[in-house]
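Quick entry between incubations.
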Amino acid sequence: MTDEMHDKVDDQVDDQIAEFKRAIEAVILVAHDPVPPDLLAQLIEQPIVLVEQWCEELRDEYAAQRRGFELRRVAGGFRYQTHHDQTPYVERFVLHDQKARLSGAALETLAIIAYKQPISRAQVASIRGVDPDGVIRTLQARGYIDEVARDHGPGQAVLFGTTALFLEKLGIDTVDDLPPIAEFIPSADIVEALEHGLRVSPVDEAPSFGSFSPEGDREPGH
Amino acid sequence: MTDEMHDKVDDQVDDQIAEFKRAIEAVILVAHDPVPPDLLAQLIEQPIVLVEQWCEELRDEYAAQRRGFELRRVAGGFRYQTHHDQTPYVERFVLHDQKARLSGAALETLAIIAYKQPISRAQVASIRGVDPDGVIRTLQARGYIDEVARDHGPGQAVLFGTTALFLEKLGIDTVDDLPPIAEFIPSADIVEALEHGLRVSPVDEAPSFGSFSPEGDREPGH
Amino acid sequence: MTIDVSTPVYEGPFDLLLHLILKEQVDIYEVDLSRIVDAYLGEMDRIQALDLDVATEFLLIAATLVELKTRRLLPGTADDDLDEEFAMWEERDLLLARLIECKTFKDVAQVFSRLADDADLSFPRTVGPDERFSSLMPDLLEGTSLRRFQSAAIRALTPRPEPTVDLFHVNPIRFTVAEAVAELCDELPRIGHISFRRLTADLAERLEVIVQFLAVLELFKQGLVEIDQTERFGDIDILWTGGADVDPSSVLVDAYEG
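Done. Structure below.
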């Protein structure tokens, strides 16, 4: 094969790739929800790895051209969304669609459910120390959590897990993108402060044994 | 003014124009209906003629870059739509889309109309907090709702209700067969209280909502 | 149902206990259980009319605390009954473990809040196919169960709370302008742009709103924010102009307190 022929073949391949990328753009534009790469792959009959690569190329192109929108991978798929620095304009436009912010109670409950799913209402209650029923209902009504299973034990308690909408709310692709829970275990000085606060022994006596070790088997989360 | 200063001023102007174009891109991206140039002009506080010129520039950029979408002027406004030569892929996607059911927003609007009929557009808007125009048009085009009466008040607003097709699709005989919802809807102050945690002191009234009762007739899993 | 706005927000007994202990963290050897127990009981007193479930939890923990306190005051009893002593430790450890777990998820919640804030800055396109494709779309109600429809109705008709900026991770009792300034120096660079109404929507007490307002004015004086009010008595737009890293301690605050 001559060089020229090589080039020609290359050009054809490039053209074809450009066409696939155009198809990807068109499909994502009309989708209501983030489009999973495997669905895109199926539609244009190309391997998923390539589809993912092309999506990333498109994302980079929009970024390089400083478009007012971006292609983001969220909740397991690709979607178009407005660039975050255009928020003031978009907010003015969608004036009434103010996004609801979550309360502290809701966020803490969501945090527990996200890391411990599937989890029952009673388990959430024991961690929070308060009846989570109302918060759980609110989160469920908002679509951030849902009943995902039933406990096998007696009573068959409903078990909750997070939804795709939760991933969208946090702007992440999967729950695996959440930082590992180990990062949040309180630092030694806080644990020490807590321990001191709850010291059993009289003040003059060193708390020699019966002390709690944060690295022990009691670690919250996994 | 030196040439260099001229250039600097020009650069600044260019940057500003680029920012306005980004804002236009962001707003049109999320709009459900074509966005009229005068609305865009109002949002970014620039003259309509310039806005129209920038939209045309954007349209030309997308065309030059052979994007899978285009910016089109339709029904007096600008909107993104898929490029006509990508139609086969889009069609395949639309046919393929197993999640092609009413979007959350559309379903909620339909639900409001079903439970509160006859109801005006303005009443739906006040419940949803967003302009329901586009969604109502879709629902009407699909034949799920229709204009059933006119308000007696001034302005004689159109009142919407559900159709026989709607009943048929949901598999019920009359709207009276719709499942009850009143018992599941907390009052505004309770929602407010739940959202904000335990600053509530139920003084004399036991809160029926939020009590830790076993599952009972509450919704089972989806 | 009446809402007693004078009660500070505690999400539960752990929350309260965490707050009380960590408040004293300055010098951990100064941490005084007696004071914690007293403060805890005092707060319980203030949170009077709680519903029964919550009150029980508060009481259980209060009982553990009181027992711990008694132990400490009566060192001699340790030798008398080892079993009892061990049981005490076990209970203490359990409480400690729950506190640590509670603290862990409180910190996670802050990260969630930050993620959600960032995500809220972008709006997804959910427009769907245009009318050229409508003939291809399957019947959109097909397969919609009555249950899905019912929950959509509940979702749609549940009253929406006012959107708020939640400052939950800040100490529940927060009254000084200096503290409010420090908080805003932390929050505003991230949020960028917010209306005063949204900023204060979560504050229960008028005094807190006033403190917040003074804090915003202080930042304005320092040139860290721009303020815009488009109409009289309208909402006030606050725009952070201070850059990414402002050391709140460098913002001098006149003493408004008192």
